[in-house]
Design goal:
By secondary structure, the protein is mostly helical. The protein contains 29 helices and seven strands.
Length: 716
């Protein structure tokens, strides 16, 4: 199935031998790339190159499959399973570039290509996944698995590959296979449409303000809004449009713009407008509305699960995760939901008290949360977000995460300036190991822009493999942080800092990976495990010795004061009711959407969501982190029935970091080496629980997570 991308093509490596220069008259995807380490020749790649390269890649991929099928020799691990790992190199080459750029640097032409390619790629992968002759060879090798003398990694690969074919429908009859193919195509098309609608909805609203509307906003927020208006002004041509932005201030539903406004603006009416523009994305009854689309996707997934022999889509997905059933997921989520909701209600009471003491005559609403929780934080902990930001310039935080991984594993980072990337904002570093050997290239693309989808993520332009020589990866982190304004650097909130460490944890999973087979490299494990390496690295972001190493005032160069660090740590459990409640509500909503039966009528999205949230008692002052109409993780990403993964991984990462605390040294050399060898290097070469146990010495327990989040009865 496409959501599993079962065939190795997308994961396969790209050769980076340097032989010939790029010929501008030839499609760059059909040439060897001459940039160092195989960096794609972004400046040579044009929109018109993608479709011919995709078609050629699919053609070559099917020809490679035919060679495997038509091999007259008896099927073996080498001539079948390993050869599958070698297929689809050209398709991977173009797909990696296209997928990355259509998310981080899209344009109307790329979006149209997405819509065209979505059903084509779905059908292509189905031709392979449902090929009876290919499966017969895989099945023949699998049936002899105990007599083949395979390594542990090879045995895991064989079992995974066989299971992926079966889970894609290899054992179905012809009629069922046709149904699966049709469903996959429809789901793929709808998922693409959902994502494009969401981008249009996010970019489609602007709060354009006059100077008189800026009450409460700090100078840096005002400057950023003025800069946003200036950029809009420079892009429009008509005088009418120019007048719209002249001497104005622009805020948008992008979080980097919205959250500072919600926190600082004393204009409650404007806070409500901007907040509602965010939570109503995809729910405006217009041409980019997502209500019918998400309901259709959920229904089609349920139909597909039924054909595959599963009760629901969630049952199908979870079979491959660490938590194996919907019941296990619900149990975990509800275990955290009850204390989180209780804490959230207490937080509302605290905010209401502040509002009442101010003489305000209103009941705290959702759009008040950021402003009044910040007031409570100042009152309780004497901590002001604006006091933190000057110490968190983007360059300093990047250096901080580099220093952290240097102390953990001896890694070094050297920025490279003579390689053209896909956007001027993107930067690239060579990563070397402690012995000086090349490990990877790391690309960072950090600033919000209108042609980049929301959120933050890690991806790669090239995978790691030791199958045919050593191939090291090219990894990218994409974020949506505020861009620099004027001569000032980009200043991050502490939440932004944690996000950067999180995504760099994913990057480390991709950079340190050291496996034989490309389909098992890096972040290719179960969804509720692969958030462990990212969330684990977050813990170092708030360690005092780490903060002291990088948090320097952007103007004076002074280190962050100890008293400010102490305030940050004391406030670490603050607002955890809100944070956990909005996340858990979204996780439970995801599970509800994907435990519907194939016989259920097509749901009205808003009514379904209303019932789901009322069932758990979500309070009016909090919306789920993602409402159904903009829940990209589950309707256009790979997290369907898996958004809970972040909290499951939090159980793992909290328990894992506890090992360093027990050792009395967050950079304990023995533990650091063990962590690298048992988690970050292993990819999907062993069962996820085995990997955790190999590091921790036992299965995970939930107590450290409850302690970290202040849900164990400790104060917040």
């Amino acid at each position: 199935m496409k959501e599993l991308l079962i065939i190795a093509g997308i994961f396969l490596i790209i050769s980076c031998e340097q032989k010939t220069k790029i010929d501008p008259t030839i499609n760059p995807f059909l040439q060897e790339w001459t940039n160092p380490y195989g960096v794609p020749p972004f400046t040579a790649i044009k929109n018109e190159h993608y479709m011919p390269a995709f078609k050629k890649g699919m053609e070559e991929n099917l020809a490679e499959i035919d060679l495997i099928i038509n091999n007259v020799e008896t099927p073996t691990f080498s001539n079948t399973i390993e050869e599958l790992e070698r297929t689809g190199k050209l398709l991977s080459k173009v797909q990696r570039v296209f997928s990355n750029l259509s998310s981080s640097n899209t344009n109307p032409q790329l979006q149209e290509l997405q819509r065209e390619l979505s059903p084509m790629l779905s059908a292509h992968y189905d031709k392979i996944a449902l090929n009876e002759d290919l499966f017969k060879r895989v099945d023949a090798v699998w049936n002899q698995r105990e007599n083949l003398g395979l390594t542990k990694e090879q045995e895991k690969l064989l079992n995974d590959r066989h299971k992926q074919f079966v889970r894609s429908g290899a054992l179905l009859n012809d009629t069922e296979k046709k149904q699966i193919t049709e469903l996959n195509s429809k789901i793929s098309q709808l998922s693409t449409e959902f994502g494009q609608n969401l981008l249009a909805e996010t970019n489609g609203f602007e709060l354009i303000l006059d100077e008189s509307d800026l009450d409460g906003l700090s100078d840096d927020i005002i400057s950023a809004a003025s800069e946003a208006a200036s950029q809009k002004l420079n892009k429009v041509e008509s005088e009418t449009e120019k007048e719209k932005y002249k001497d104005k201030y622009v805020f948008t539903p992008h979080r980097s713009s919205m959250y500072p406004f919600l926190t600082e603006s004393t204009r409650r009416d404007l806070r409500e407008i901007l907040y509602k523009s965010y939570i109503m994305r995809g729910d405006n009854n217009n041409e980019t509305d997502n209500k019918k689309i998400n309901a259709q996707i959920a229904k089609l997934r349920a139909e597909r699960a039924k054909i595959m022999g599963y009760k629901t889509h969630a049952h199908f997905i979870l079979e491959e995760n660490m938590l194996k059933t919907p019941e296990e997921v619900y149990e975990l989520l509800i275990q955290l939901w009850e204390p989180a909701l209780e804490r959230a209600k207490a937080e509302v009471a605290d905010m209401q008290m502040v509002a009442d003491n101010e003489g305000q005559n209103f009941k705290i609403a959702a759009w008040d949360w950021w402003q009044y929780s910040e007031k409570v934080r100042k009152e309780k902990y004497d901590l002001d977000e604006s006091a933190i930001k000057p110490y968190m310039s983007l360059d300093n935080v990047i250096q901080g995460v580099f220093n952290t991984t240097n102390k953990l594993w001896g890694l070094n980072f050297k920025e490279i300036f003579d390689i053209d990337l896909y956007h001027p904002d993107a930067r690239v570093w060579e990563v070397t190991d402690k012995d000086g050997s090349h490990l990877a290239l790391f690309i960072g693309d950090y600033f919000t822009r209108s042609n980049k989808r929301g959120g933050a993520w890690m991806s790669s332009f090239k995978s790691q493999s030791n199958l045919d020589g050593t191939e090291r990866p090219i990894v990218v982190n994409v974020c949506n942080f505020p861009a620099p304004v004027g001569d000032n650097p980009s200043l991050l909130s502490f939440e932004n800092v944690v996000t950067l460490f999180h995504e760099f944890g994913h990057a480390m999973h991709g950079i340190l990976t050291n496996v034989t087979y490309p389909s098992m490299a890096g972040t290719s494990g179960p969804r509720d495990f692969i958030e462990l390496p990212s969330q684990l690295l977050e813990h170092w972001a708030s360690e005092p010795e780490v903060l002291k190493s990088f948090a320097k005032h952007y103007e004076t160069g002074e280190s962050i004061p100890d008293e400010l660090i102490e305030k940050i740590l004391k406030a670490s459990k603050f607002n955890q009711g809100f944070i956990n409640t909005e996340y858990l509500a979204a996780s439970l909503l995801d599970m509800d959407w994907h435990t519907i039966s194939y016989t259920d009528p097509l749901k009205d999205s808003n009514e379904f969501e209303k019932v789901s949230l009322e069932k758990i008692g979500l309070i009016d002052e909090i919306a789920p982190r993602y409402r159904s109409t903009y829940f990209a993780h589950i309707f256009s990403g790979g997290y369907s029935s898996g958004y809970y993964s972040y909290v499951h991984a939090a159980v793992l990462d909290s328990d894992g970091f506890e090992a360093f605390k027990e050792a009395g040294d967050v950079f304990d050399p023995e533990l650091s080496t063990k962590l690298r060898k048992t988690i970050y290097e292993k990819g999907a070469t062993e069962e996820a629980m085995d990997l955790f146990v190999n590091f921790r010495g036992r299965k995970p327990i939930i107590a450290p997570l409850l302690k970290v989040r202040g849900l164990d009865g400790s104060s917040g």
